[in-house]
């Protein structure tokens, strides 16, 4: 059920982006003699549990699409916990046996970065969240609310500091049985960066990569203008945006409780971003957290991290990182931003001109 909802969301987002982009790029009516740039072409595939859409604006060849989707397929084969033979599944199967599992350079790199973000966020982002994800049935057909006792029993398994990595052998091990890695909060971002690399090798300089809302823009549009990426209004089911960011060569990734959730028998919504501290879906006043930065890999992990950390702590972390900006939306649709968005280092606007950006308040302590 959550899977369906997530796919619906993704398709809806893509639909919205298509409408949005087609309405933004009105064809030139002038009598210019220059040949118009080729029409962009999109292809989509269901991968990584979501709809992955790639739109090429130049260098359009089937080979470029094929190599891009193959790169996503490789990430999925290596890192999906839903594929029993994946490298991550094998690390998990060997948990507590004392055996390390030797993995590809790619999986090693993603686990290392996940551990790095875990340390930066003081464990708010934790790639050992797997046992809790399973307990809640996040992403399965049968999500359920665990008992307090089940949560209490599971929490000691969530601890990124216990992951053992051996760089020389690119091997990874989990010391306790039942521990499980889950790279769901970071793998899409890594895959998006991989797609960019493959497309660049194929001569593409202008493209839009959208892996289930994890957006990465390549270059500018062929006419040199910036990409316009709308940030979803979490309060609206209609794909309304609260703000449009104008970007080149940037990734925009949003984490929020509205992206994947189920409704419990108690009528409450339970979403998929879990707090490693207490084992429950994160409860925050903010309704979404967005990261804008060049690397989608970083943007994906950090957007999950700062949603868990909350606005003030999340923004404080982001302000220490060069070239990284964050945007938070609260229940009143107020848009809070870090300094680079406020001072327009990253251009932004709303289509109706009637917006205001509020700097993230400093924490009182
Ligand atoms: P989405 O998958 O909707 O793009 P995120 O990037 O925020 O959203 O990732 C959410 C996924 O990350 C969850 O489905 C789960 O697999 C995993 N996850 C949940 N909570 C955490 C956490 N605290 N730290 C790291 N990963 C998490
Ligand atoms: Mg993420």
Structure, explained:
With 365 residues, the chain is an alpha+beta fold. It contains ten helices and 17 strands. The chain has helices spanning 2-24, 62-79, 87-93, 105-120, 130-136, 148-154, 187-201, 296-309, 311-319, 339-342, and strands spanning 41-47, 50-56, 101-102, 164-166, 171-173, 207-211, 214-218, 227-232, 241-247, 251-255, 261-263, 269-271, 286-293, 325-330, 335-337, 348-349, 357-359. The strands form four sheets. The chain has a nine-stranded mixed beta sheet with strand order 1-2-6-7-10-13-14-15-17, with helices on both faces. A three-stranded antiparallel beta sheet has the order 3-5-4, with helices on one face. Strand 1 (41-47) and strand 2 (50-56) form a beta hairpin. Bound molecules: adenosine-5'-diphosphate and magnesium ion. Magnesium ion is lined by residues 185-186, 255, 300-301, 303-304.
What is the overall shape? Answer: globular
Low-confidence stretches are 1-5, 11-32
Number of strands: 17
State the distance separating the first and last CA atoms: 42 Å
Task: Calculate Rg over CA atoms.
Answer: 20 Å
SSE succession: HEEHHEHHHEEHEEEEEEEEHHEEHEE
* Ligands and ions found: adenosine-5'-diphosphate, magnesium ion
The helicity comes to 25-40%
Estimate the strand proportion: 15-25%
Mean pLDDT metric: 89
The description of the largest β-sheet is: 9 strands, mixed
Separate helix tally: 10
Major β-sheet strand ordering = 1-2-6-7-10-13-14-15-17
Structural class: alpha+beta
């Amino acid at each position: 059920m959550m899977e369906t909802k997530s796919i619906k969301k993704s398709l809806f987002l893509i639909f919205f982006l298509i409408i949005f982009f087609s309405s933004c790029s009105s064809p030139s009516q002038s009598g210019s003699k220059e040949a118009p740039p080729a029409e962009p072409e999109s292809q989509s595939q269901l991968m990584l549990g979501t709809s992955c859409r790639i739109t090429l604006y130049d260098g359009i060849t089937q080979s470029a699409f094929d190599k891009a989707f193959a790169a996503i397929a490789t990430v999925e084969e290596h890192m999906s916990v839903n594929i029993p033979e994946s490298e991550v599944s094998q690390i998990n199967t060997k948990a507590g046996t004392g055996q390390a599992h030797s993995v590809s350079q790619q999986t090693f790199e993603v686990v290392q970065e996940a551990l790095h973000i875990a340390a930066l966020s003081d464990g708010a982002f934790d790639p050992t969240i797997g046992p809790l994800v399973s307990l809640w049935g996040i992403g399965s057909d049968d999500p359920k609310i665990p008992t307090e006792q089940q949560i209490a029993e599971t929490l000691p398994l969530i601890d990124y500091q216990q992951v053992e990595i051996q760089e020389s052998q690119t091997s990874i091990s989990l010391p306790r049985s039942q521990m499980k890695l889950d790279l769901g909060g970071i793998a899409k971002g890594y895959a998006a960066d991989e797609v960019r690399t493959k497309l660049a090798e194929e001569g593409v300089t202008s493209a839009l990569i959208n892996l289930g809302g994890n957006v990465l823009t390549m270059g500018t549009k062929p006419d040199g203008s910036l990409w316009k990426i709308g940030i979803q209004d979490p309060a609206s089911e209609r794909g309304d945006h609260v703000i449009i960011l104008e970007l080149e060569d940037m990734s925009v990734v949003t984490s929020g409780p509205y992206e994947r959730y189920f409704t419990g028998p108690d009528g409450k919504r339970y979403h998929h971003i879990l707090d490693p501290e207490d084992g429950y879906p994160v409860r925050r006043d903010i309704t979404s957290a967005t990261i804008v930065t060049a690397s989608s890999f970083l943007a994906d992990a950090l957007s999950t991290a700062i949603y868990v950390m909350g606005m003030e702590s999340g923004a404080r972390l982001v302000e220490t990182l060069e070239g990284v900006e964050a945007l938070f939306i609260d229940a009143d649709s107020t848009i809070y931003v870090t300094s680079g968005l406020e001072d327009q280092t990253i251009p932004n606007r709303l289509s109706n001109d009637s917006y205001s950006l509020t700097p993230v308040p400093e924490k009182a302590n």
